[in-house]
Design brief:
Elements (H helix, E strand, L loop, with lengths): L8 H13 L2 H12 L3 H12 L5 E5 L2 E5 L4 E2 L3 H9 L1 H4 L2 H21 L5 H14 L1 H9 L12 H17 L3
Antiparallel strand pairs: 1-2, 2-3
Helix pairs in contact: 1-9, 2-3, 2-6, 3-9, 6-7, 7-8, 7-9
Length: 174
């Protein structure tokens, strides 16, 4: 049975409007461009992580572990500092740059490991890696499903569905 997307195209349209209204669309698109991946892919990760909201998330053990629109984990100093200072609200650039670096590295690692796959397949596995780490995503992909270790066991698939929605919306002039 096919996995159903967790949002529909109307929700994606609303999220795209929010990204634009809050200045994130331009920031994410610029970073995606300089890092060599589609802007709509970065939008889709923001959509999956926070429904395109610049928030603190992943509350565990009395503290938030995810920071900002793309939920950088506080295991990384840039996220911990942004959370503790509140700068994720006023200066999200360092978090976005860090996330773009992670995504680029994931795509590169996946492409090196699976040179014969398509770019969309690389993006799907790299999205899984954004959620569960490259080792787990690659191990899952080697066994038929890069999402086997991800939240909901559908992260990479869902990101690609959301990317498709954003691609459609932008192509239609939204």
């Amino acid at each position: 049975m096919a996995t159903m997307p967790s949002i529909n195209i109307d929700q994606a349209k609303s999220q795209l409007k929010s990204l634009r209204d809050h200045g994130f669309a331009d920031k994410l698109a610029a970073l995606a461009g300089t890092h060599g991946f589609p802007a709509t892919y970065f939008f889709a990760i923001a959509s999956r992580e926070t429904n395109c909201q610049n928030i603190l998330g992943d509350f565990q053990g009395g503290q938030y572990h995810g920071v900002g629109i793309i939920q950088i984990d506080i295991q990384h100093d840039v996220a911990r500092q942004a959370r503790d200072s509140g700068s994720y609200k006023t200066n999200p650039g360092p978090l976005l740059s860090f996330g773009a670096d992670l995504i680029k590295a994931n795509i590169h690692t996946v492409a090196q490991h699976f040179p014969n796959l398509t770019s969309d397949q690389h993006l799907k596995i790299a999205a899984s890696a954004y959620n569960c780490g490259p080792v787990n995503a690659i191990k899952g992909a080697e066994h038929g499903d890069s999402d086997s270790h991800t939240t909901g066991h559908d992260y990479g698939h869902d990101v690609m569905v959301r990317k498709g929605f954003f691609d459609q919306l932008i192509a239609a002039g939204h």
